[in-house]
Amino acid sequence: MLRFENVGMRYGIGPEILRDINFALEPGSFHFLTGPSGAGKTTLLKLMYLALRPTRGLVHLLGRDISLTPRSELPELRRQIGVVFQEFRLIDHLSAVENVALPLRVANIKQSTIDDHVRELLSWVGLGDHLDAKPPTLSGGQQQRVAIARAIINRPRLLLADEPTGNVDDHIALRLMYLFEELNKTGTTIIIATHNEALLQKFSHPLLRLNDGQIDAVAARSDRLVAAS
Amino acid sequence: MIRFRADLPFEQDQATRFVPWIVALMVFLGALALAAATAVGGAIDGWDNNLTGRITVQVPADEASPKALSRLVDALTATPGIAQAETLSAEATRALVEPWLGTLDADLELPLPAVIDVETAVGAVFDVNLLAGRLANIAPGVIVDDHRVWLAQLIRAARTVELVAFAILALIGLTAIAAVIFATRSGLAVHAAIINLLHVMGARDAYIARQFQMQAMMLGIRGGIIGSLAAIVVLAVLTTMSAGIDVALLPSAPLSPAQWPLLIIVPVTAVIITMATARVTVLRALAEMP
Ligand SMILES: Nc1ncnc2c1ncn2[C@@H]1O[C@H](COP(=O)(O)OP(=O)(O)O)[C@@H](O)[C@H]1O
Ligand SMILES: [Mg+2]
Hints:
Chain A is built from eight helices and ten strands. By secondary structure, chain A is an alpha/beta fold. A six-stranded mixed β-sheet of chain A has the order 6-7-8-3-9-10, sandwiched between helices. Chain B is α+β, with helices and mostly antiparallel strands. In chain B, α1 (19-51) packs across α8 (265-286). Chains A and B meet through α2 and α3 of A and α6 of B. Adenosine-5'-diphosphate (ADP) binds at residues 11, 14, 17, 35, 37-43 of chain A.
């Protein structure tokens, strides 16, 4: 599903933010990506959702070696990845429905198919009463649910979330985690970047731990499986 | 104004404000240049038909005895390359100068020269100076007026005017393209966040370019309408004004009724240029993304 081999990444001529990243994730797995602020979690996620190309090393994603994939075929790959951004990145002048519909529009899916699908999903995340609301009129938690609905609207095979609990209350964070687990049960591979210790304590999913630009552990944490349940 | 549904909030853009105006200017001048070119072209065709086959010979009034005139006509008719020569009547001569001098009283004793109208054979080439010399032996002071010489100069001048008009139009076109590139680049910068978002969602470059293209089309249409209206007003005024003037060499109106629809080419071309420029600019910028 996802494999990094000796990946290194630097911005421009700056220092190497990530170096010698090696790991492989199975389809249907659920991982936390942790590490202190500035460790490179967001950068690593960007490499995963193909917003950046690594400066060295190989990225294998969904059965493709990205460095050997022509640029024209990357959009198809990106459409199989859902991303929940840290700052949500909703488009302010579009309604909730239009925001969630974007990934489908981008994929040239018929408008008539889009509408029902989007309304249904927004109702499922509890925003049935705010279909036509513009993001600035929604609360932080509501905005996040719009962002999540947008990330999962086209049933991605890989779902990435960057600090999804950073901007919401604890009980919302918890509900969010259950939602992700729900999606994981349907087969979606999930990676959540977080440095929320409470969350890491409560849920026992394995860790990709970034430290000083390197993955220092892919911890299975079988020890905590019992404690979490 | 018609709207299209865009993912990008273009209506907030400042840099696009002046695009319709520069397109309007392009369309306005383009329409005038096209009308001028059409009119000049039409006039040149007319001159070709009316004048190229003709030479006039002017005989000073005091030399224009009927005997001298008939000898001149005989000499001309005998010259190879001349199909026909005929002395114009006094009335016809007065009619010729009327556009310049106004209606002349028949009893006003203005010594008008006699005029011999000469029709050359098709494609005839001969030495006008040699001819003038021979005619001067018969009647001193004869002037041989070969329209073909000054007509060629006139046509050259008219073509130069046409060329200058199109050069100016091309310059304005380039300015418009530069303006659209500038506006599009600034749009790309202003909307970078949303463009990035669409990109990572799996939008193809063409999907994003299409939005800029549609936006450019709206701006282009707006400018095209303004410029066309202005051009129509100016051309209508010129047409009305020229209707009162009747000078043989000038076209009676900038555009004939059949030529008016031709003007639609100008705004349509302007809109296509605007769209294509925006599209190319966006595609080039997006090609830099991973
Ligand atoms: N676009 C960028 N240009 C230059 N440096 C960047 C950029 N984005 C992040 N960085 C740097 O890369 C390092 C890792 O950042 P980031 O991936 O955001 O870490 P994290 O998400 O773990 O906090 C930081 O030192 C940050 O300053
Ligand atoms: Mg981060």
